[in-house]
Design a protein that fits this description.
The structure is a single chain. The protein has about 375 residues and is of the alpha/beta class. It has 2 domains: about 110 residues, Aspartate Aminotransferase, domain 1 (Alpha-Beta Complex), CATH 3.90.1150; about 240 residues, Aspartate Aminotransferase, domain 2, CATH 3.40.640. It is about 40% helix and about 15% strand. The protein has 13 helices and 12 strands. Strands 2-8-7-6-5-3-4 form a 7-stranded mixed sheet, sandwiched between helices. Helix 2 packs antiparallel against helix 10, helix 4 packs across helix 5 and helix 11 runs parallel beside helix 13. The chain is globular. The structure holds pyridoxal-5'-phosphate. Pyridoxal-5'-phosphate (PLP) binds next to helix 4.
Length: about 375
């Protein structure tokens, strides 16, 4: 007897970047911040570790939501906090998308808009997995080779884009390419969408512009953020989403009762109290990004312009897959995605300057070996 649902049996689970414990490894594969959280954040977390761990945390992360509301000039009713941004994305599928009931008839008919989760290819590779878990239709719409945001005319002409899709997920700046999108072009897309459009601003602190204002202007627009990458807090799992109280209220109804752990709430709240520390890190990471981009370009890599804490680069001489292995053999971990639109690229997280230097040195050595 099969005890696991057929949908789950067929599911191809998301594969996160390797969390290796190899000693001396240079880890540039999951876009973690190379710098630790602020000393004030560490102190706040330590101070919270006592007998109170026996208590449930605040179910809605009230203190954190109030601080975030102040930061973004809105009300706590405009905000929901999640167990990482991934939790927000999963909740959005559950709250806004109707699972497919039966196969569409005829078989090649388009899926009904109410069951469509739509996103660009490439973008965050978790999106199709979340759609599949929910039993929804994942609609991947290709980006051009430069990863630019298509215009409305291009989307209409392409014929694949669904302006009525129940949920549209846009990674902005784009991952894995690192390309930034202007608020003006995002606004044109948002205005054209009838269903919910969620702007995943995971990397926005490294970008030139952000689109938070759109979440407070349009009832169908949500903006999701996370403390993981820019705020050095992956371990604590805290993300949030801003939007109209009707959408946010829907998300609150379906979330786990205590979806954000107490120490995470404390750490995130303390993070917001020490912005200058993080601003300095953003500048450092930006400077390292430019150095590494120039260094790799000089070695024949084609590096995409980045507005994130990673770069996307087409390597020279060997295939990207071979580079992944050769770097790994020399204790440098980067990310390679084997799917067709991006298999020629490596995604390299921005670490410290010393890590960038070590990477450049290793690349130079590998190139030297190739040329014999
Ligand atoms: C890392 C990442 C997330 C998830 O962040 P968490 O808050 O750690 O769950 C979401 N979206 C994109 C594009 C990411 O790269």
């Amino acid at each position: 007897m099969k005890r696991v649902r057929p949908l789950v049996q067929k599911l191809r689970a998301y594969v996160p970047g390797e969390q290796s414990r190899i000693k001396g490894l240079i880890k540039l594969n999951t876009n973690e911040n190379p710098y630790p959280p602020s000393p004030k954040v560490l102190a706040a977390v330590k101070a919270a570790v006592d007998g109170r761990l026996r208590l449930y945390p605040n179910p809605t992360a009230q203190v954190l939501r109030e601080k975030l509301a102040k930061l973004h000039g809105c009300s706590p009713e405009n905000i929901i906090v999640g167990n990482g941004c991934d939790d927000i994305l999963a909740m959005a599928c559950r709250a806004f998308v109707e699972p497919l009931t039966a196969p569409a008839k005829p078989l090649d008919a388009p899926a009904p808009a109410r069951s469509v989760v739509q996103f660009f290819d490439p973008s965050y590779s978790l999106y199709p997995v979340l759609a599949a878990i929910h039993g929804a239709h994942a609609q991947a719409v290709p980006l051009a080779d430069d990863f630019a945001l298509p215009s409305l005319a291009e989307l209409k002409k392409g014929g694949q884009w669904d302006f009525r899709a129940a949920l549209t997920l846009v990674t902005t700046p784009n991952a894995p390419s690192g390309r930034g999108y202007s608020t003006a072009e995002l606004e044109r897309l948002c205005r054209a969408q009838k269903g919910v459009i969620l702007l995943d601003e995971t990397y926005v602190d490294f970008a030139e512009e952000n689109a938070m204002a759109l979440a407070l202007k349009y009832p169908q627009v949500l903006v999701a953020r996370t403390f993981s990458k820019a705020y050095s807090l992956c371990f604590q799992r805290v993300g949030y989403c801003v939007g109209h109280p009707e959408l946010i209220g829907g998300l609150h109804k379906i979330r786990d009762s205590y979806n954000v752990n107490g120490l995470g709430q404390v750490a995130a709240a303390a993070t917001l109290d020490d912005q200058p520390y993080y601003q300095a890190n953003f500048r450092r990471i930006g400077a390292t990004r430019e150095r590494l981009s120039h260094g790799l370009t000089a070695l024949g890599f084609r590096v995409c312009p980045s507005q994130t804490n990673f770069i996307f680069a087409k390597p020279s001489v060997l295939s990207a897959e071979r580079w992944l292995q050769k770097l790994r053999d020399r204790k440098i971990l980067v990310r390679w995605f084997g799917y067709p639109s991006v298999r020629d690229y490596l995604r390299i997280s921005i670490g410290t300057d010393a890590e960038a230097d070590a990477l450049l040195k290793t690349v130079r050595r590998i190139l030297g070996e190739c040329r014999g």
